[in-house]
Design goal:
The chain is an alpha/beta fold. The chain has helices at 6-11, 39-42, 102-111, 134-141, 155-163, 165-185, 198-223, 357-364; strands at residues 25-27, 48-50, 70-72, 92-94, 120-122, 147-148, 151-152, 246-247, 253-256, 263-268, 279-283, 287-292, 295-300, 311-314, 321-326. The protein contains 8 helices and 15 strands. The strands form 3 sheets. The protein has a 7-stranded mixed β-sheet with strand order 1-2-3-4-5-6-7, with no helix packed on it. A 4-stranded antiparallel β-sheet has the order 8-13-12-11, with no helix packed on it.
């Protein structure tokens, strides 16, 4: 259920630009409130207070409101008028449709005697109204009243009420005993469905509060203003049990363990104008962890450091974070040794590969397809008919019987082979 907090008071004081120190009027009706609180501390100058249509069971937290003139507590679960003796300026009190019975009527009227400025009182709709002497009894005990339940109190009515006061006091005692006996008789009888009781009102207002909350939640979801759940900051170790290495903020960083062999220097490029209070730095012998606006940057260190001797600074020009971490054993850095680079050799000219036997045979072979079909390629000598289909080959050694001279082409034509047709 909602509570009467300072935030709610500021929200309901929009007409005063959210300023509550000098607030004079506030409407807190239909807020499903169960308790009156924070008004004496926040609104000492309040004059008009509207708290109707809630489920407030007790009048409290109002006694210090010296300037309060109008208090509306209609449609609540109040059984007794109390806690307003210090409201010196109270002029109008509305207690319509509450649960003030004849048992509490005498004490309730007595508590109103201190409010000498009270001129208008509303008690209609309360169980005490069922007693026939209710109006006379109230008028007789509260001479400052000018009207009761919206009806003016005439002088003759006041005089008559004062005369009948002893009898009214006896009648009230009888009515109280009858009411107590009636409640005792009905103690074991279940209440009929739809009866107007405190329990039924509480149940109804709880249901209304749930519906209102669901409606507000759907509206926030539709407008995209629903508050998000707080982000869970990752832990130090990952699922495998190793030290987590991450950079959720995407900040530039540099870790230097070579410039000074006695320490490790870690630099993180946080925004220049970021408040230093938004940084959370944790240096461990094995890792360094920086939380910047719920974004974790955590790195595993290459060597064991001394956390108690570390130095954390921020640059005045760039705002970057600098952490100097002295090594426990200077010169000793964990991790695999550096890979040795192969020695570079000068470039050398590549030698052409020697032709293989298959390539030489392919180069020496000459196609003989279609030779016998071309009359120009058919030998006219009749004494050599078998030479037409003889395999034609060329040799690099030149024509038999003629020595090869330097500079001559190895692919000289054979005299016995007819010339090839240029069209093929």
């Amino acid at each position: 259920m909602p509570q009467l907090t300072e935030e709610l008071i500021r929200k309901r004081s929009e007409h005063n630009e959210g300023v509550i120190s000098d607030l004079e009027e506030i409407a807190l009706h239909q807020q499903e409130l169960e308790k009156i609180e924070n008004l004496e501390a926040c609104c000492r100058h309040i004059k008009i207070l509207l708290l109707q249509n809630n489920i407030i069971p007790k009048m409290e937290g109002l006694n210090k409101l010296k300037e309060l003139e109008y208090l509306n507590l209609a449609l609540n679960n109040i059984s007794m008028i109390e806690g307003i003796e210090g409201c010196e300026s109270l002029n109008k009190l509305d207690m319509t449709v509450n649960f003030v019975g004849v048992e509490e009527l005498e004490e309730s009227i007595y508590n109103l005697k201190a409010n000498i400025m009270l001129a208008d009182l509303y008690l209609s709709g309360n169980p005490c109204e069922d007693w026939s002497g209710f109006r006379e009894y109230t008028v007789a005990h509260l001479p400052q009243l000018k009207q009761l339940d919206g009806k003016l109190i005439l002088p003759n009515e006041r005089i008559k009420a004062r005369q009948n006061l002893p009898r009214l006091q006896q009648d009230l005692e009888v009515a109280v005993q009858a009411s107590i006996a009636k409640k005792a008789a009905e103690a074991g009888i279940p209440v009929s469905e739809g009866a107007y009781t405190k329990e039924s009102r509480n149940e109804m207002y709880l249901e209304m509060a749930a519906q209102k909350e669901e409606k507000d939640k759907n509206e926030r979801r539709r407008m995209g203003t629903e508050p998000k759940e707080p982000r869970q900051i990752p832990g130090i170790y990952n699922a495998r049990g190793d030290i987590r290495q991450c950079n959720e903020g995407k900040y530039d960083f540099n870790i230097d363990d070579t410039t000074d062999p006695t320490k490790i220097i870690f630099e993180l490029g946080v925004p220049k104008y970021l408040e230093t209070g938004a940084l959370d730095v944790d240096v461990n012998p094995m890792y360094v962890r920086c939380v910047v606006k719920e974004k974790v940057t955590q790195l595993k260190l290459p060597g064991e450091v001394k956390p108690d001797a570390c130095k954390v600074q921020r640059s005045r020009t760039t705002g970057h974070l600098r952490i100097e971490m002295p090594l426990v054993e200077p010169g000793r850095v964990r991790g695999p040794a550096a890979r040795q680079e192969p020695e570079l050799q000068p470039l050398q000219a590549e030698r052409p590969p020697a032709p293989g036997p298959a390539k030489a045979a392919a180069k020496a072979a000459v196609s003989v397809q279609g030779i016998y079909k071309d009359p120009r390629r058919v030998s006219k000598s009749s004494d050599k008919p078998k030479a037409l289909l003889r395999e034609v080959k060329t040799t690099r050694g030149g024509t038999s019987g003629r020595p090869r001279r330097g500079g001559e082409d190895d692919d000289d034509d054979d005299d016995e082979i007819p010339p090839l047709d240029p069209r093929t």
